[in-house]
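Example record

The entry below shows one chain as it appears in the dataset: sequence first, then structure tokens.
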Amino acid sequence: MASIFPIVIIFANAPLSRPPDLLNRIKQADLIIAADGGANHCLALGIVPDVLLGDLDSIEPGVLQKCQETGAAIHRYPERKNATDLELSLDFALEKGAEKVWLLGGHGGRWDMSLATIMLAASEKYRALGITLLGADCSMKILHPGTLHRFTGCVGGTVSFLPLKGDSSGITLSSFEYPLTNYAIPFGSTRGISNIVQSDMATEQHDSGILLCVQLIKDDNEG
């Protein structure tokens, strides 16, 4: 049975860096989840989340009241727990059968939280979620092995591929300025930095390891 929530947006509590297509993505979403203080971002954008989840220690009182008044489903957890509010939100999206998760407010601010968010998104248990971290200057997508990843609508864009979990092997890049065929990038190498998409036919696939794909968002005022 197909998921009734294939596209899920999660608002986390880090400073919100708004991608240029944010409002369009909100319209596409089947479910909007606020991880605690992420609800503050939602209300600032003029929307109310479908689900508010967390220990609720970061949400503004007026925002919490608005969520209660508008019928948002509220899942409250104790402050002392073994997972962050974001991890609980990803678990919730997984339970609801999400196929694609767009994460906003997931990085920026505290380095420890930002790095933890990237590593959390790369967890094997979230492989089915197709997680992308969105921001104003770049998007970051977790690429798992055995899948063909396409890059459309971004010709001329700068893309980097960083191994996250040990070495990555069998990497093949097509229609990039620096193509690769069955290539291995060891953990910690800069070999995958700053490639350029050459056509809408550009693809990436690899056989092992997990890659963090960082795609820069071009400033229309540049050049």
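Notes for this example: The chain has a mean pLDDT of 92. The chain has five helices and 14 strands.
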